[in-house]
Amino acid sequence: VAGFSGIHLAKEISVTTKSAAAAARSTVYGYPRQGQGRELKKAIEGYWKGRVTADALTATAAELRRSNWRELADAGIDEVPTGDFSYYDHVLDTTVLVGAIPERHRAAVAADALDGYFAMARGTQEVAPLEMTKWFDTNYHYLVPELGPDTVFTANPAKQTAELTEALELGHTPRPVLVGPVTYLLLAKPAPGVAADFDPLTLLDRLLPVYAEILAALKAAGAEWVQLDEPALVQDRTPAELNAAARAYRELGALTDRPKLLVASYFDRLGEALSVLAKAPVDGLALDFTESAAANLDDLAAVGGLPGKRLVAGVVNGRNIWVNNLEKSLSTLGTLLGLADRVDVAASSSLLHVPLDAALERDIDPQILRWLAFARQKTTEIVTLAKGLAQGTAAIEGELSANRAALASRATSPITRDPAVRARSEAVTDADARRSQPYGQRTVAQRERLGLPFLPTTTIGSFPQTDELRVARADLRAGRIDTAGYEDRIRAEIAEVISFQEKTGVDVLVHGEPERNDMVQYFAEQLTGYLALRHGWVQSYGTRYVRPPVLAGDISRPEPMTVRWTTHAQSLTDRPVKGMLTGPVTMLAWSFVRDDQPLADTARQVALALRDEVNDLEAAGTAVIQVDEPALRETLPLRAADHADYLAWATEAFRVTTGGVAPGTQIHTHMCYAEFGDIVQAIDDLDADVISLEAARSHMQVAHELAAHGYPREAGPGVWDIHSPRVPSAEEAARLLRTGLKAIPAERLWVNPDCGLKTRGWAETRASLENLVAAARTVRGEL
Ligand code: GLN
Ligand code: ZN
Question: Which string of DSSP letters, residue by residue, matches 361-375?
């Protein structure tokens, strides 16, 4: 153990510490699912289309599991995860595991397990799917369990035991990974028809015996250890919830016929739940020791460590894409050695959240490439750290010096240190983040300039992304057309979108965003300091994978990004055309962010780059500019204690983006999902003039939430649910508007759909927008 850099190791190392170090093993909790050639996605989508048989799909899946385990084992991982594989989502797998199939899906599941599984995930003509929502603060989405007082759980361990058996037969040391019972219940919601205040946690006593049965089955199938994931315990939990966790692990721990239990948490510090789990009669804990959960270290010491238990230390960040600081991790591991019986090394969470392999990124400058670590590189880091822990730093000297060089190159690179960007960012004043007049005065200037009727109509930005547009982009990539040819097609599309809106009588027009592949990537590609990945796919949900760009360095905008499209659109009409940008918080939320400076600093750099765009749009005559922030709410930290800090820098970034325009320029913002009740103050702090929100499905609930909090500005609660191809009738939209008017006075109410129209077809778009305009006219007539 000699040679540790950790100061904590200066003290004499006890015999137990030495053996804990010597026994250090490496593991991960999960691995990217789809395969290097996107095999799983292709096989599943082929199966849905009837082109791939069920047998072929299961064979592809088995082959992927096999190759993932082989890859991990070949890299030197001692204990491989099983059961982390999924055809769609591991929470849905847990629903199947515990037999909590919703009533409406039971027939389909009974008829065919695989088709029934996909029916729960995606719905069918007849039945709605399970609701989907974000997995903690990641961009992965899980299917929400639906439970009620009548829910009966039954153990269905076949998938788990089969995958365990596969791994055993291949000669691996597997550890099944399951969503733990407390997290499963805390992630659930009341089933349709069940009282909204039903608390799924009341089902714990019914669920535990089923977990007991599953654990016994896994033991019988040869599991020495089983991992139960309890990430819900890193969130703020009530005393009752903490008691439930204590009870759950007291009972599961007391079972005699069970494997050893490893309870895992990640994404944040465990806080109060740490002492609960430390006291529980389980055999090990897996904790996150990355920056954002660093408090776990002191908290663990404060509860007296984990005597007699195994500690799996998540020191390699499982959700960012940066190389680890190996020396720092070794120092943390060294400290931990004194706190548990055995210390193993892992990524902080499943590697599901990172792309597979940085080495595939051939377009990235090799100087930058060595700063990046995706799943394969992280696996190597884990193995290296375990070796260093077991054998001393001398055994990994080569890796340590390469790591030191990579970190130094990143820290001193002109890409991560652009003096001009830094100087500008430091010089930002309060005045920069403030419009020159308060909302109440600006609105007078805006009314005069825009001359809009009451209940003005507008849309959220995008119009249908047609096949022609996709073909045009493919043609450009393949060199079948040149940039000029491509841009002609974009301009033609804009002309069509403008003429349609004029004809329909929309008041504030948009250009339709036909030039954008994606609302974040489009800007990332044009900003200096951002990297695009070619193979950096990560699972968003099911077979949907995204390639988030990387905020790699200091951010600046070499030239205008959207101005020519907006001005082209404006040249075709006398009505105002709204400029359309993605806001700084959303740019961060849907990218891989830097880990070498506070998020607030990155947000401010992005904000300043976007501010230039806002100012250029204004200078080009744009009277209305929308800055979308759909991610403002979803990026809220997991712990309430961290909310104020986040909201302060997030709203400041928005105000820096928009603070430079004249009072007569109207700033809009847009957010999608509902549940804004707890951030109305933050929405107000954005100091936007108009906000559009999703509201059609909830019957304008957000309008009432805004009103209840005294929100003083203009707002457009959506009156057309764009997630469905259904065309809302004019009467229906008018009814929603009348409901909206009960919360927001006519001079502040806008009329718009819930969100952008890029996923809709032209036929529905035409009919729906005509109805929307008709509804606005009808209700105006009633004022
Ligand atoms: N302006 C974007 C659009 O209309 C907004 C999308 C979003 O909110 N997710 O597509
Ligand atoms: Zn939206």
Answer: -TTS-HHHHTTB--H
